[in-house]
Design brief:
Strands 2, 4, 5, 6, 9, 10 and 11 form a 7-stranded mixed β-sheet that branches. The protein has no helices and 11 strands. By secondary structure, it is an all-beta fold.
Length: 127
């Protein structure tokens, strides 16, 4: 129901744009839900990256990506994007999009709020 794509190999300092499309999440359109991106590096726990509320006017970021990553959404296209700039080797991870039902559209940072996960898309940043 959630499909993430756009990952790849990029040199440090480069950019990537991840996208996540959704269909039929709990029978309701994507615009009903807050969305987020999380990432998981090898040997590490999955961590919060960015989140956006249902209407797209509230965004939050982890300290490690603030100022470099931008989350956005297009509810008409059922799509959430993560624009990643000035990538660093420590950004290397599998990136997952996620949706939350229980926050009633409010942005979330806690992984416990996630109700649906997309499959991961791999991002590798070479030094």
């Amino acid at each position: 129901q959630l499909q993430a794509f756009g990952g790849g190999l990029v040199q440090a300092g480069g950019s990537l744009r991840l996208s996540c499309t959704a269909s039929g999440v709990s029978g309701r359109p994507l615009r009903a839900y807050a969305m987020g991106w999380f990432r998981q590096a090898p040997g590490k726990e999955r961590e919060f990256v960015a989140t956006i509320n249902w209407s797209g006017d509230t965004m939050r970021y982890s300290d490690s990506v603030k100022g470099r990553f931008t989350i956005s959404r297009d509810n008409a296209k059922n799509t959430v994007n993560l624009q990643m700039e000035t990538l660093k080797p420590e950004d290397t991870a599998d990136y997952y999009c996620a949706s939350a039902v229980r926050t009633y559209g409010q942005a979330f940072t806690d992984i416990a709020c996630v109700d649906y996960w997309g499959q991961g898309t791999q991002v590798t940043v070479s030094s």
